[in-house]
Amino acid sequence: MTNTDKVRVRFAPSPTGYLHLGSARTALFNWLYARHTNGKLVLRIEDTDKERSRKEFLDEILEDLKWLGIDWDEGPFCQSQKISIYKEYAARLLDKNLAYKEGDAIIFKVEKSKVIKINDIVHGEIIFNTDELKDQVLIKSDGLPAYNFACVVDDSEMAITHIIRGDDHISNTPKQLLFYEALGINPPEFAHMPLMMGKDGAKLSKRHGAVAVFEYKKEGFLPEALSNYLLLLGWSPGDGKEIMPLREAQKIFDIKDLSDVQAKFDIDKLRWINGEYIKNEETKVLARLIRDSHNISADAQDGYLINVIDLYKTRFRTINEFANLTECFFTDDFTVDEDARKKLDKYLKD
To answer: Which of 82, 174, 265, 307 is the most exposed place for a label (fewest CB within 10 A)?
Structure first.
């Protein structure tokens, strides 16, 4: 890539499930780098898994990206609509005798004892030896492209300059570089981010709590707060600042500043950041969000609801938490904490 080339990055989710927090962070970092460099973000949908891909997952992924404030410049493009293109590229390798047929599948010949070096933007030099690799599937027996081959074809066709993704893809990179070389295509630059972990150091999963973006939306987190928190998991503005709206972050974000240390997801820290955004949000906006949440206060008159919000604005850290804290203002049928009741009884007696 030369200094005059435009940065082109991509986010490529599979519609086989909801948008995971880790994937959302990947999308966010790609978006920030595109915006910081006046580049382009391409949205690609990797939907060749016919059995697991579902339209409702795709719809939710697109909605969640928009909710987080992540837009894209091109796409979404679906791999399922480009099958003939992958076959054309595979045919080129067959013609060069760099691949062979095995039934209906097309297999790439991996040259043995070859050293592959990756100059990763995050981790520095990573070295692989092709003795660790077996021959690679290009086109499967069902006529669909294998993941790594489809990625290379798409990234080439889309003129992607930088691939920003998780560490779990490092093992895919030498295979992809072999395909680039065989096709005579200059590869993009790579930046592999350490994965998001739970507080216990294990890979973030459902046993750590909610892991999908839509779950945090339902729990009453603000999109600006969640984006802000994800931003801090692997990147820092460098001055200890923790409240960083995306409009500020995009001015200074650079993938060269990504950390090579695993980031631990801390729900308490997210709640604190969300609380800070709530404190600084307009009360009328909070009132609308509270009404949309359909909690017990949703039917209250505007003036009354706004007064209660102002009273508790510094105390609730999610939209849903507001209902629990302010139940007594909106119904006669509410519970009182036992310790609080005893203190009140003592106060009344005195």
So the answer is: 307
User: DSSP letters along 54-94, please?
Assistant: -HHHHHHHHHHHHHTT---SEEEEEGGG-HHHHHHHHHHHH
Q: Give 247-281 pLDDT, tens digit per residue.
A: 999 999 999 999 999 999 999 999 999 999 999 99
Residue 158's closest CA among 74, 275, 256? 74
CA 114, chain centre distance (Å): 34
The span from the CA of 197 to the CA of 194, in Å, is 9
Query: Does residue 211 contact residue 205 with C-beta atoms inside 8 Å?
Result: yes
Residue 206 appears among annotated catalytic residues: yes
User: Exactly one of 206, 256, 346, 349 is catalytic; which is it?
Assistant: 206
Cα angle 16-211-204, degrees, rounded to a multiple of 5: 105
Predicted local confidence at residue 204, as pLDDT: 81
| Block mean pLDDT (10 aa), the chain, length 350 | 74 97 98 98 96 95 98 98 98 98 98 97 98 97 97 98 98 98 98 91 74 95 98 91 95 96 94 97 93 71 88 92 83 65 56
Integer angstrom CA distances of residue 24 from 15, 61, 66: 13, 9, 11
β-pairing, 124-129 vs 115-120, is antiparallel
Domains present along the chain, CATH in parentheses: 200-329 (1.10.1160.10)
Per-residue pLDDT tens digits for 47-100:
999 899 999 999 999 999 999 999 999 999 999 999 999 999 999 999 999 999
**How far, in Å, CA of 266 to CA of 21, rounded?**
12
- What per-residue confidence (pLDDT) applies to 76? 98
Is the preceding omega at residue 174 within 30 degrees of 0, hence cis? Answer: no
